[in-house]
Amino acid sequence: MFSSKTVARVGRNYSTWKIWPKKSYSTEATFETKPFKLHKLEEGPSTSVTIGRDEALLLYRQMQTIRRMETAAGNLYKEKAIRGFCHLYSGQEACAVGMKASMISADSVITAYRAHGWTYLMGVSPVGVLAELLGRKGGCARGKGGSMHMYTKNFYGGNGIVGAQVPLGAGIGFAHKYKGDGGINISLYGDGAANQGQLFEAYNMAKLWNLPCIFVCENNGYGMGTSAERASANTNYYQRGEYIPGIWVDGMDVLAVREATRFARAMCAEGKGPVLLETATYRYHGHSMSDPGTSYRTREEIQEVRQSRDPITSFKDKMLNSNLATAEELKQIDTSVREEIDKAVKASKSDSEIGLDELAADIYAVNLEPVIRGVTSLDTVKHVNIGSRVNLN
Amino acid sequence: MRNILGSFVKSAVRHVKGCSEFSSVTTIRHSSSFTYVPDTLSSSDGESTRMNLFQAVNNAMDIALGSDPTAVVFGEDVAFGGVFRCSIGLQEKYGKDRVFNTPLCEQGIAGLGIGLATAGATAIAEIQFADYIFPAFDQLVNEAAKFRYRCGNEFDCGKLTVRTPCGAVGHGALYHSQSPEAYFAHTPGLKIVIPRGPAKAKGLLLSCIRSNDPCIFLEPKILYRSAVEQVPVKDYEIPLGKADVLVEGENVTLLGWGTQVHVLQEVAQLAQDRLNVTCEVIDLVSIQPWDYETIFNSVRKTGRLVIAHEAPLTCGLGAEIAASVQSNCFLHLEAPVQRVTGFDTPFPHVFEPFYLPDKWRCLDAIKRVVEY
Asked: How far apart are CA A70 and CA A76, in angstroms?
């Protein structure tokens, strides 16, 4: 199913690993990725990728956690516990997890509304994500943002307007460069958003000033209900930065994404300016919860991807075949992830909503009038500042 | 300050009680509490059929496409019906060259529509949510609105209609709930219309499509399925710029548009029952131009005006109407004009029920103008 050459150094004393009994593991393994496609690049990322056992287990756990969390979110939506808008990331886990694996702590991320997985990877607990979805005060935005608007340190959100986050990403990249903090910015958007005019404005500024930005088009094949072929004159999204080097990567292969990101990140960090990544991926659910996701594609197509390209299953197979982990170990991870998410669901559901005093909280840093005008010209509500700044002090 | 906040909380609690009156489900957060009041047809309307709002919009576009070979319908996902099903079946009936999907690019959609209309097509564009119209703001405000003026009437894009769902829906949060009518009302050259239900929507949309001025047609999205009534089967137009007096009354004029009209009709009944006050309920229908004559005549009769809209207070359309009324009806006014609106906050996800100008807040405003 995949070509891998396993470089196994079997039998190293793995004393730091305490959960499972000592056993003969490969401590690392090397795999071949699908070839990358390149735009304006002489050389691309290496198609031979090596991963250690610890990291492999981490990436597996992260992908499973996101999958499980999204399943829980879908169920909560069906129970009508989550109201409004909810866009699930299931199927696309390898994109976020692979990128995160090549980031350093100074790096920043901004994405669109399919934000739950990224929020978790950037440091918010599953309770923080699920409670936010439920509009509860334990949510990472105290329930004020909901599905599309989640934030944490170096994670500039969840953004609701298609494509609007990408120029912001250029600005964040500018700040990294200006401050010389060693970080780069990753701005993510979908194949649908790739046709928004403001992306091209962002590309131009980023290249003009050689900003440390990775623009990532997560191409899941469908912009809402319209397939990429029906929406884009050029569906090679990695080429659409024209003067910006681009890389196409198999977005269902977490290791390929990790490697492409590492490569792109190094270019940015060396001052070579922006890089455009296209991750070829797939979403299992509809665009949002109101879209059953079957009117513009067949059930067979979804089934086929689940069976042959699923990012978690394929990575699991790689780990097992290369002896990076045993089936039992992975099962234990699955069980512990399930328990963690079940607990998070319970905790989130029993959490309360924020008080009414927060209706007019944090609209301004300094509200020049003490009150916010209300639903009648006599009604007012006190403006308060509650949240604290995460990224700037 | 504490007292002010206290009264706010009290009014919010009242709201929750109000909600449970029409909802059997009390455990789920509810909002947008209103009871839809269907329009009644006259015998001259001819044959009619039962439709909800999205079906009426669909029917109007069907008639427009059928009667005008230059008409085209386009927008994000409209080929298979759009997210609210307004264009369902139209591609099958009229073909892929007349009903088609666009990429996700609102500025491009508006610009394309302006170009199409300028070159002689009847362009019917959908912006998927009114909250997404802002990338197209430049095209609509600077290009569509000024096209005719800037070339001395040599060119125009009058055959452009932009349809877009607006307003609260119960769980839409920041970017699926806004009511942007006032932004556009500030732009000479555009016509802006908001229907209160299916029968009005059909006639008004056909008028917009056939109007020789660019129109923005805002459809209250909560009414798409919840508003059901008899709609004439025939092809008909309803004149733009005309308000409707829905309930006649003597003491207070209540003015709203879209969903709020239905809240106000219930408020009028409450005022009658609880305060023995008779209210005149007016649906403004047309935001730009707005029908000042009907409003002034009513206020001159009642001496009191309450305007209610979902959009925030400051610079909402209510401000324009209040200012015009005080200029033109000053000596008839028995009390200052009251506005009941959304708060001057972003549209809040968890606080939607408290944000909206619900019936209790409107009733409070009536009390104030009566007791002034």
From this structure: 10
